[in-house]
Amino acid sequence: MRKLCLSAVFAAVLISCYSCSVRSSYVSISGYAQGGTYIVKLGMGPEVRKHGIDASGIKAGIDSILLCIDNSISGYNKGSLLSRFNSGESIRPDSIFINMYDKSYGYYKMTGGAVDVAAAPLFDIWGFGFTADSLPSPEKVASVMSSCGMSRLRPEMRTREDGSLSPEDLLVENVAGGNPELNYNAVAQGYSCDLVAGYLKGLGVKDMLVNIGGEIFCQGLNPGGKPWSIGVDKPVDGNNVPGAALQGTIEIGPEPCGVVTSGNYRKFYVRDGKKYAHTVDPRTGYPVSHSLLSATVIASDAALADALATYCMVVGVEKAKEYISTTPGLEGYLIYSGEGDRLLTWASEGVIIR
Which helix or strand (DSSP H or E) is residue 218 part of? Predict the structure, then answer.
């Protein structure tokens, strides 16, 4: 499940100087998922070993979770529950599908509509969703705006008595427009990190870093007994390889948290000399145009960090600063352009930058 609505713009950087005895208790597991790769680093402490599971068994568990997510909420898997739902088919939603919808409706309310997973047709017409369209007319934008969005949908997903759900079941009464279409790209990878982390916690893992396509959940300490170090990419055009050119690193831990960066410098196109960024404001129907280049958000879990990183990219520098500074339990690191295209940065009080 590739992420198009937001870009993963950082990579985990691990401190390399640690003793062989400490290193031997940590394992690194990697694989392919959601159109990219994942890497999980975890400490195999005594709580884990008592389960009688080794690294290969843990990898099998992780792969199984990621496959379930792909079969449920991937917009790129044509056989997924989400793809079938978006095509108008009646489905039997699983717990992942229902939980993702309920969380997303909460993010919609939390952000005043800036994060809206039911704006999928809007992302599509700008070429940043599941289709390759671009540069729609104002009339097209207005038409799509009137027929999509979470404002048309019920706040909770409730299935029928037989466990089925049809797209029209989500619509509020007497609403105009057609059936809803959903796009979870703004939150799905963060949510995936949380599910994998939950599985690892169930095995007794205390120290972990879960990185799925650049979205991260971590807790505890790294193999050197220090906080995890997360690299934030320099948000400049052409920096397409995560970790190749860093703006800085952020120290995270030992408290559990999600760390997600969203940016506008990797996914865009230029038409008639104008740059169209992949962040579309669902409240206006148009791609954003402001100086914020990337937003890193640190929150209690990765799904929330994912949603709020998108929110910051929608609202821009000043509103992002205000929101991060006034929201308990939230930290952030913003990179934006100044005069002469200079890169400027802002970090909330609790962020340690190296």
Answer: strand 215-219
Asked whether residue 12 carries a pLDDT value surpassing 70, the answer given is no
Model pLDDT, residue 338? 84
Q: Is 72 left (phi over 0), alpha (psi -120 to 50) or beta?
A: alpha
Amino acid type, 233: D
User: What is the pTM for the complete model shown?
Assistant: 0.87
Contacts with 25 (C-beta within 8 Å, 6 or more apart), sequence order: 43, 44, 45, 223
Residue 290 C-beta-side C-alpha neighbours within 13 Å? 21
Render the burial of 101-128: b for 16+ CB within 10 Å, e for the rest: bebbbebbebbebbbbbbbbbbbbbbbb
* Exposure on the CB side of residue 53, measured as CA atoms within 13 A: 20
**Which one, of 301, 216, 221, lies nearest residue 253 by Cα?**
221
Sign of CA dihedral 28, 29, 30, 33: negative
Could you give the CA distance from residue 78 to residue 83 in angstroms, rounded to a whole number?
5
Which residues, in sequence order, are CB contacts of 275 under 8 Å at separation 6+? 268, 269
